Prior knowledge:
Elements (H helix, E strand, L loop, with lengths): L1 H26 L6 E5 L2 E5 L5 E15 L2 E4 L4 E6 L7 E2 L15 H4 L2 E2 L4 E5 L2 E5 L5 E5 L2 E6 L2 E4 L1
Parallel strand pairs: 3-12
Antiparallel strand pairs: 1-2, 2-3, 3-4, 3-5, 5-6, 7-8, 8-9, 9-10, 10-11, 11-12
Amino acid sequence: MPSIARKAAGLTAAAVLAAVPLAATAQADDPGPLFFRAGGFNCSIGTDGTVGCDLSSPAWMSIQVAGANIPMPFTVTQVVIDVPWAPAHPGFAPGIYTLPGGNPNIDDVATGGDMWGPSVTYAGATCAVGFHGSFVCNSKGHTFGSYGSTISAS
């Protein structure tokens, strides 16, 4: 009988130890947001595909609504794509998309690229450096792009 008890204890211990890596994997399923920097944009892409960027200097922005480009009457320091029912728009939480000490360069986290520059795709969102340093992000059916000191959003 003692050998049966030892075998049962050994099987129980093996089952418990086998479950430990699975528990650790379940806790690690949410890797958190991906942070990066591209030109004057410090951005993050959340695990839900939300894209937000803090701008290093204010920029003029226009938003396409019902086919018309509506210019914002103020410069923006942040741009966000956070919901599928609204176009990209200004954000008002300075610094939220920038890590203390700064974000890593997009080159360091790139998942692709083309002849113009690197791109990163994460959680259904894509951001890319383009022709002559332009920058564009797409997520949740919306986009924003920057060339020079102007941002266009839809």
